[in-house]
Specification:
heterotrimer, A alpha/beta (189), B mainly alpha (368), C alpha+beta (557), B: 368 residues, C: TATA-Binding Protein, 10 helices, 24 strands
C-alpha cells in the first residue's frame, strides 16, 4: 500500500503545518486576561456611582451608621490585621487622617475576616485614631463591589460629600494616592 | 446500614463456583477444538451463508451471484423446510440462478445441539457459570445495600459478568461458539485476577460515592467495558485469522483442519468485532456523560481533566478513530483492528493504572 | 466522511447499486488528492487543501493526535488542578521541568497546540457535515432509483411464482412495502425498454444519515457550550469556619477563576453562614475510620438583606442559589487559640484552620500568627490523640480527644513590611525559637510561655469546610448536546439504509407471473438485513395467494 502510505505522509505533514499556524493564531487570541492592574481608579464629578448605605457595629461594639457621614468626605479602608499590606499602609492612613480631619474628611475602617480583639490590638499598637466596623463576612465589601471593582484586600475607597464614590486605590495606599483622591473628591460638580 | 455478612459470603462462594465452572467450560471449548467435528464442511449452520452474503456485499454488488446462489441453495437443503409457493429456478432472467424464498435459519439451540457433544457441554457449562456469576454479583449488591460496582474488585466481577452474558448473546445470534475458548478464557483470567489480587471485602461506600449516579455512571461503564472486552478478544482473533488467510493466499500455508481452520474467517470476525464495538460505543459515550453529570453534582464542574476523565476521553477518541478507520481506504482490516485494540488497552490502562496510581479525584478503587 | 466524486454511471442497474453498495466515504472517491498530486494553480491548492482537511484520513490523524496529546495532561501534574504538585515536580526535576513548561505540558488542555488540534478537527467536521446535510436534503427529495434489470445479481435475491398477473403482483408487493414505510417508485409513463414493465423500487433508512449528522453537529454544540461556560462562567473556592459568614464577592473568595468576560460585579450577591458541620465515620469493622457522611448546615440569603433560608450541603448535594451552585469539597479542623500577654490582656483570639496532612486520620498542620504579640507558632493538630513511642499520632478522624503540639517563635513576623504572606506558612527568619521540643496541649490547657512572654490557650475546636462556588451557563446546553449526540449515534449505528426491488414478468405457462425480489444494503451496516430480507420476501410471497381465511404470510414452514 505504498500509495496509501504516501498519502498518509502528505496528510500528516499538512496537518502539522496547519497545527503550527493554528497554534500561533490561538496564542495571539488567548492573551492573558489583562485585568486592569491600575492601582488607582477615579470617577469624574457627575459620573460617580452612588455608594451603598450600611449600618454596622464598630470593633468596640458601638453602632455606626454610614448615612451619618453624609456631608463629609469619607475614606473607607477595607483591611484586616492578618493582611501584611494593610498593616504596612496603616501609618500612612493615620497620618493623612490627622492632616485632613480639620478639612471635614472622616476615615473609617472596614475590618474583614478578622476578630475584634485582633483588630483592636493592632489599632492600639499602630495608634490608629479612626474607628473600624466589624465585617467578618465581607458583607459591606459585597455591597460596594456592585458599584466599584473591588477585588482584593486592602482597598481604599473615597466617597465625596454627596455620598458618591469618587475614586479608589487597589492595594496598599500611598500618601500621593490618598492626597490626589481627596483633592479630586472635593470637586463635587 | 451494616453489611449483610451472610450475603457477602454467598457472593464470594458463588463467585468461586462461577470461576470453576467457567474454567471447565473453557476446557470443553478447547476440547471441541481438539476433538470436535470439523466445522468448515458443515452445511447445517447458517453462519457460512451469512458470511458469504455479507462478504459479497463488502466486495460490491456487481459480483456474479452464481456463487451465492449455488452455495446458498446447497445450504438450503439440510436446513430447509419446504417453502410455500415452491420454487426455484424458474424463468429467471439471464445471468444468475434465482433461488427460492430464503427460509428462516435453523434455531439457535438446534444448531448448538447439532454442533457436537463438546459444544453442547461447553455452552451448558458456560450458562451454568453465567448464572452462578449473576447470583454472585446480585448477592454482593444485596449484601452492601447498593449497586455492586463501588470498587475495583466489584467492577471487574461485574464487567466480566456482562462480557459473559454478551458472549452468550453473540453465540445465539451469530452462532459464534467457536470463539468460546478465547472469550471465556479471557473472562476466567480476569475473574481470577479479581479474586486473588484485587479482592476487597464487602463494605459501605465513602460519602462521595453515595449517590444514585453510581448506579447510572458505573453501570454504563461496566456494561461498555464488558462489551469492549469481547470486541478486543475478537479483534485479536481477527488478526490471527487474517494473518493465516494471508499466508494461505501467499502459498505459505495450507488450509486444513487444524486449530487455525476452526476459527471463523477473518471477514466474519471483522464484521462481528465491528458489531460488538458499535454496541459498546454509545454505552461508553453515555457513561462518560453520566459521569460528567455526577461530577458536576459532586465536585462542582462537569469536566475537569481529572486523569480518569482524561483517559476515558482518550479511550473514546481512539474508538472513534477505529470507526473512522473502517471507513477510510487503506485503513480497514488489520490497521483498524490495531486501533481498536489500542482503545481497549487505553481502557485497561485507565482501570488498572491511572485509577490506582495517579492521584486525582477518582481514586475510589479501594485497592490498598 | 468527505465529498465523494460521483460514481454513478449511466446504466440504470449500476445506478441502483453502484454508489449505494459502497460506504459513506464514497470509497472509490476517497483517494482525492492522493491519486493525483496537488494541482498547480493556487486556487487549486486551496481546493486540494480543503479536500485534504475534510477527508477521513485527516480526521483519523487528528483523532489520534487528540488522544496522544491528552496523555501528558493526565500523567504530568497540571497547573489548573494541582499547582502545588507542579511546584513539587519542578523541585524534583530541575532540568526537565522548564523544558516541559515551554511546550506547555503543565497546562495541556489550555495550551495553544491542544486547542489547534481540536479546532482543526472541528473545522474538518464542519467541512464534512455541511455538504452532507445538503446531500441528504437532496436525496430526500429524489425518489429511489429504478429497479435494476437483473435482480438476481444483487447480494440478496429471491423469486417466487405468483398466481396474480404481473401488474397485480407488483401492486401487492408495493402495498406490503409501503405498509413497512418504504419510499416507493413505480415506472413512469416515459420509461421504455427494461425500465418499463412491472416493477417497484423501495428505499428506507434515511434516518441513519440524519443520526450521523445529528451526532457530529452535537459534538460541535458541546464545544460551543464549553466555550460559553468559559467566557461567562466562573469558579471560586472558599474556606469557611463554623460560625462564620461569607458574602459572595471577589475579595472574600480564596480563589477566583473568572471567565474571560466576567467582572466582579457579575457575581451573584448571596451570603452564606456555616452554622455547623457534621462528619460521621465508621466506628467499627474492617473499614473503621472511613467517612460515612458529611453534612454542612448553612443559612443563606440570595440577596443582601434578603430572606434567610437554611439548607444542608452534602457531597453530591450542592446548594443552588440564584443559578450558582455551592459544593462541599473538603473539611478539616480549626482549633481556637487565645494569646494573652504577661499582664493577662488578650492580644489574639481566633479559630485557626489547620490543613489535613493525612486524609485518613485527619492529622493536620497549621500556623498561628499573633503579630501584635510578636509571637508565632507552628504545629500539628490531632483529633484523637495517642502517643506511640513518643510520637504523637491520630487514631481516628473524629475529634474524640483533640490535642495540638506547638513550637513557638518570638520576634518580628515580618507582617508589617507589606509583602503578602501565606496564611499557612510562618517565616521564622529573624525570630527566636521559644522552646526546644514541641509543647503538647489538650483542649482547655494553657501553655505559659517562658521569659514572661505571656501564654497561649487552646480554647476549643471548630471545624471548617471548603466550598466551591461555580456558575456555568454552558452546562445545560452541553448536556442537551451530549444527549442528542447519543441519540444520533444510536440512529446511525442501528438504522440501515436499504433498498428493495420487485420485478414481475408473465409466467412461461401463461397464468400468473414470476416475481423476483432483490435487496441491497450498505456494507457497513450493523447486520440483520438477511433476516429482514427473508421475512419481507416471505411476506411478499404470502401476499400473492388469493386471500385464504387466515393468511399465513409468515410461513417458511
Amino acid at each position: 500500500m505504498f500509495r496509501a502510505r504516501r498519502r498518509t505522509v502528505i496528510t500528516a505533514a499538512t496537518v502539522a503545518a496547519v497545527l503550527l499556524a493554528g497554534a500561533l493564531a490561538v496564542t495571539l487570541l488567548t492573551q492573558g486576561n489583562g485585568n486592569a492592574s491600575d492601582s488607582m481608579i477615579e470617577y469624574p464629578a457627575g459620573h460617580r456611582p452612588l455608594a451603598p448605605d450600611f449600618t454596622a457595629t464598630s470593633l468596640t461594639g458601638t453602632p455606626i451608621k454610614f448615612a451619618s457621614y453624609r456631608g463629609k468626605t469619607v475614606v473607607l479602608n477595607f483591611w484586616g490585621s492578618w493582611c501584611p499590606p494593610c498593616r504596612d499602609e496603616a501609618p500612612t492612613l493615620e497620618a493623612v487622617a490627622q492632616q485632613y480631619a480639620p478639612k471635614g474628611v472622616a476615615f473609617l475602617g472596614d475590618d474583614v475576616a478578622d476578630t475584634p480583639v485582633n483588630a483592636l490590638v493592632f489599632d492600639r499598637g499602630a495608634s490608629i485614631s479612626y474607628p473600624s466596623v466589624n465585617d467578618p463576612g465581607y458583607a459591606i465589601v459585597q455591597d460596594f463591589s456592585q458599584v466599584a471593582p473591588i477585588s482584593d484586600t486592602p482597598t481604599t475607597v473615597v466617597i465625596d460629600r454627596t455620598g458618591h464614590v469618587a475614586g479608589m486605590v487597589l492595594g496598599a495606599a500611598t500618601y500621593a494616592d490618598l492626597t490626589t483622591l481627596l483633592r479630586d473628591a472635593a470637586v463635587t460638580r | 446500614m451494616a453489611v449483610n455478612l451472610g450475603m457477602a459470603h454467598v457472593s464470594s462462594d458463588f463467585m468461586i463456583v462461577a470461576l470453576l465452572v467457567y474454567s471447565l467450560a473453557v476446557l470443553a471449548f478447547a476440547g471441541d477444538y481438539a476433538f470436535g467435528r470439523p466445522r468448515r464442511a458443515t452445511a447445517s449452520a447458517a453462519a457460512p451463508e451469512a458470511e458469504r452474503s455479507t462478504e459479497l456485499a463488502a466486495v460490491g454488488a456487481a459480483v456474479g451471484a452464481a456463487v451465492a446462489a449455488g452455495s446458498a441453495s446447497a445450504a438450503e437443503v439440510p436446513a430447509g423446510q419446504a417453502v410455500t409457493g415452491g420454487g426455484s429456478a424458474d424463468g429467471a432472467a439471464a445471468g444468475g440462478t434465482a433461488q427460492g424464498v430464503p427460509s428462516p435459519r435453523l434455531g439457535a439451540f438446534r444448531s448448538i445441539w447439532a454442533a457436537g457433544p463438546w459444544v453442547r457441554g461447553a455452552v451448558t457449562l458456560s450458562t451454568v457459570g453465567m448464572l452462578a456469576h449473576l447470583v454472585a454479583v446480585v448477592s454482593r449488591g444485596v449484601a452492601v445495600h447498593r449497586a455492586p460496582w463501588g470498587n475495583m474488585y466489584e467492577f471487574i466481577t461485574a464487567l466480566t459478568c456482562v462480557a459473559a452474558i454478551f458472549f452468550g448473546y453473540i453465540v445465539v445470534r451469530y452462532r459464534a461458539w467457536a470463539l468460546g475458548v478465547f472469550v471465556m478464557g479471557a473472562v476466567v483470567l480476569a475473574l481470577g485476577l479479581a479474586e486473588t489480587i484485587i479482592y476487597t471485602p464487602a463494605g459501605p461506600l465513602v460519602p462521595a460515592l453515595q449517590s444514585y449516579w453510581l448506579s447510572i455512571h458505573v453501570t454504563a461503564m461496566t456494561l461498555a467495558t464488558g462489551i469492549f472486552f469481547v470486541a478486543a478478544v475478537l479483534g485479536l482473533l481477527y488478526l490471527v485469522a487474517e494473518r493465516y488467510r494471508a499466508r494461505i493466499a501467499a502459498g505459505k500455508a495450507q488450509a486444513g483442519n487444524g486449530l487455525l481452520d476452526r476459527i471463523p474467517s477473518a471477514a466474519a470476525l471483522d464484521k462481528l468485532t465491528y458489531r460488538t464495538a458499535i454496541f459498546g460505543f454509545p454505552i461508553w459515550t453515555f457513561g462518560v456523560i453520566a459521569g460528567a453529570i455526577w461530577a458536576d453534582q459532586a465536585w462542582g464542574r462537569y469536566w475537569g481533566w481529572d486523569p480518569v476523565e482524561t483517559w476515558a476521553f482518550i479511550t473514546w477518541v481512539i474508538y472513534a478513530a477505529y470507526l473512522h478507520a473502517r471507513a477510510t481506504a487503506g485503513w480497514r482490516g488489520a490497521r483498524a483492528h490495531y486501533i481498536q485494540l489500542l482503545g481497549f488497552a487505553s481502557l485497561i490502562t485507565n482501570m488498572l493504572v491511572v485509577q490506582v496510581f495517579i492521584t486525582g479525584m477518582h481514586s475510589y478503587a479501594g485497592v490498598n | 466522511m468527505h465529498a465523494p466524486r460521483s460514481t454513478e454511471s449511466a446504466e440504470p442497474s449500476d445506478e441502483a447499486t453502484g454508489s449505494f453498495g459502497q460506504d459513506d466515504s464514497g470509497e472509490a472517491g476517497s483517494g482525492t488528492g492522493g491519486t493525483s498530486g496537488p494541482p498547480a494553480a493556487s486556487a487549486g491548492w486551496l481546493r486540494w487543501g480543503w479536500r485534504q482537511l475534510t477527508s477521513m484520513r485527516t480526521a483519523l490523524v487528528l483523532l489520534c493526535l487528540l488522544a496522544l496529546g491528552s496523555v501528558p495532561g493526565s500523567v504530568l501534574p497540571q497547573q489548573g488542578s494541582d499547582p502545588a504538585a507542579v511546584q513539587q515536580y519542578y523541585a524534583s526535576h530541575h532540568w526537565l521541568a522548564p523544558w516541559l513548561n515551554r511546550i506547555g505540558l503543565f497546562n495541556v488542555f489550555a495550551s495553544p497546540w491542544f486547542a489547534a488540534i481540536y479546532l482543526l478537527l472541528f473545522a474538518s467536521l464542519v467541512g464534512c457535515v455541511v455538504p452532507r446535510t445538503f446531500r441528504l436534503a437532496g436525496s430526500a427529495r429524489t425518489p429511489p432509483p429504478r429497479a435494476p434489470r437483473n435482480l438476481a445479481r444483487l447480494p440478496h435475491s429471491a423469486s417466487y411464482a405468483s398466481e396474480l398477473s404481473p401488474e397485480a403482483a407488483v401492486d401487492a408487493a408495493a402495498s406490503v412495502l409501503g405498509g413497512q414505510r418504504f419510499r416507493l417508485r413505480r415506472p413512469a409513463s416515459g420509461d421504455v425498454g427494461h425500465d418499463a414493465g412491472h416493477w417497484v423500487s423501495a428505499e428506507k433508512g434515511y434516518l441513519r444519515e440524519v443520526g450521523n449528522l445529528i451526532f457530529h453537529l452535537s459534538l460541535l454544540g458541546v464545544l460551543i457550550a464549553i466555550a460559553i461556560g468559559g467566557l461567562f462562567g466562573y469558579k471560586a473556592d472558599k474556606l469557611l469556619v463554623e460560625g462564620s459568614t461569607f458574602a459572595d464577592t471577589t475579595s472574600a473568595l480564596d480563589e477566583f477563576h473568572p471567565g474571560r468576560l466576567v467582572a466582579g460585579s457579575d457575581l451573584a450577591p448571596f451570603s452564606l453562614t456555616l452554622d455547623t458541620f457534621t462528619a460521621t465515620y465508621l466506628t467499627s469493622g474492617q473499614s473503621a475510620g472511613q467517612p460515612e457522611s458529611f453534612s454542612a448546615k448553612v443559612t443563606y440569603a440570595a440577596t443582601p438583606g434578603g430572606q434567610q433560608r437554611t439548607d444542608n450541603i452534602e457531597v453530591n448535594h450542592p446548594l443552588s442559589v440564584d443559578s450558582v451552585k455551592v459544593y462541599l469539597i473538603g473539611h478539616g479542623y480549626a482549633p481556637v487559640f487565645r494569646v494573652t500577654n504577661a499582664k493577662g490582656q488578650v492580644s489574639y483570639e481566633q479559630a485557626t484552620p489547620f490543613i489535613p496532612a493525612n486524609t485518613g486520620t485527619l492529622l493536620s498542620d497549621g500556623v498561628i500568627k499573633a503579630p501584635d504579640a510578636s509571637l508565632g507558632f507552628m504545629g500539628v493538630f490531632v483529633p484523637t490523640a495517642v502517643m506511640t513511642n513518643g510520637t504523637l499520632e491520630s487514631l481516628f478522624p473524629a475529634a474524640d480527644n483533640p490535642a495540638v503540639s506547638l513550637i513557638g517563635y518570638s520576634g518580628d513576623l515580618g507582617m508589617n513590611s507589606g509583602v503578602p504572606q501565606s496564611v499557612y506558612q510562618l517565616d521564622t527568619t529573624g525570630m527566636t525559637k521559644i522552646s526546644g521540643s514541641p509543647h503538647l496541649m489538650y483542649q482547655g490547657q494553657t501553655w505559659k510561655l517562658p521569659g514572661s512572654r505571656g501564654s497561649i490557650t487552646y480554647v476549643g475546636t471548630k471545624q471548617w469546610v471548603s466550598l466551591a462556588v461555580t456558575y456555568d451557563p454552558g452546562q445545560i446546553p452541553a448536556l442537551v448536546c451530549g444527549l442528542l449526540a447519543i441519540a444520533g449515534l444510536l440512529l446511525s449505528f442501528f438504522v440501515r439504509r436499504r433498498r428493495m426491488f420487485v420485478r414481475a414478468v408473465p409466467a412461461a405457462s401463461g397464468a400468473g407471473s414470476v416475481v423476483t425480489v432483490g435487496g441491497l444494503t450498505r456494507s457497513d451496516a450493523s447486520g440483520g438485513f438477511e433476516d429482514e430480507f427473508a421475512s419481507l420476501s416471505a411476506e411478499l410471497a404470502g401476499q400473492d395467494r388469493p386471500a385464504p381465511p387466515n393468511n399465513q404470510s409468515e410461513t417458511g414452514a
